């Protein structure tokens, strides 16, 4: 039995197979999961009901086991910043800057071959999509280069 923040076996398996530079898409409930990401990416459906499970719930769990070096978000068409971006920044920390992409550019980025995992959510807030780029796991301090 696992005791960490992330215990979902399929998600853990996909993350274990991924490496530096692979991407993970965590979309809101409106995102076209079947057509808006790499067709070869593993898909996990956590969208149990509207509002369950949220993007930030999934992001927090993923960040507990995976280093992230970049994060892309979907920009609103009117240029206004969605309120969920504040939550993303809190969870990601200051070292990972949110990079906003226009909607179709976001779809293009999620459709690339390096997108290895899509975790569908029941998130109801719009523009609550995030595409994470996996970072590097540093060596232990006594084995630094």
Structure description:
The chain has a six-stranded mixed β-sheet. Helix 2 (55-63) packs parallel to helix 3. It starts with 8 loop residues before the first helix and ends in an 11-residue tail after the last strand. The chain is an alpha/beta fold. 24% of the residues lie in helices and 21% in strands. Helix 3 (84-92) links the parallel strand 3 and strand 4. It is globular, with a radius of gyration of 15 Å.
Question: Which properties best describe this structure?
Answer:
globular, 24% helix, alpha/beta, 145 residues
What's the overall geometry?
globular
Strand order of the largest sheet: 2-5-1-6-3-4
Distance between the termini: 35 Å
Number of extended strands = 6
Helix-strand pattern, N to C?
Answer: HEEHEHEHEE
pLDDT averaged over residues = 94
Largest sheet: 6 strands, mixed
Would you identify the regions where 5 or more consecutive residues have pLDDT less than 50? none
Separate helix tally: 4
Helix content: 10-25%
Q: From the helix content, strand content and strand pairing, which structural class follows?
A: alpha/beta
Strand content range: 15-25%
Task: Please give the radius of gyration in angstroms.
Answer: 15 Å
């Amino acid at each position: 039995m696992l005791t960490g923040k992330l215990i979902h076996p399929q998600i853990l398996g996909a993350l274990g197979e991924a490496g530096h530079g692979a991407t993970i898409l965590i979309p809101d409930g409106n995102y076209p999961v079947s057509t808006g990401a790499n067709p070869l990416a593993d898909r996990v459906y956590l969208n149990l009901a509207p509002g369950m499970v949220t993007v930030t719930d999934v992001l927090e769990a993923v960040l507990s086991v995976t280093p992230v070096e970049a994060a892309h978000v979907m920009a609103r068409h009117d240029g206004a910043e969605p309120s969920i971006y504040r939550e993303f920044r809190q969870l990601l920390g200051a070292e990972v800057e949110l990079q906003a992409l226009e909607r179709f550019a976001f779809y293009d980025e999620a459709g690339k071959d390096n997108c290895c995992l899509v975790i569908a959510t029941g998130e109801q807030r719009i523009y609550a999509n995030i595409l994470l780029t996996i970072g590097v796991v540093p060596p232990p301090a006594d084995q630094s280069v």
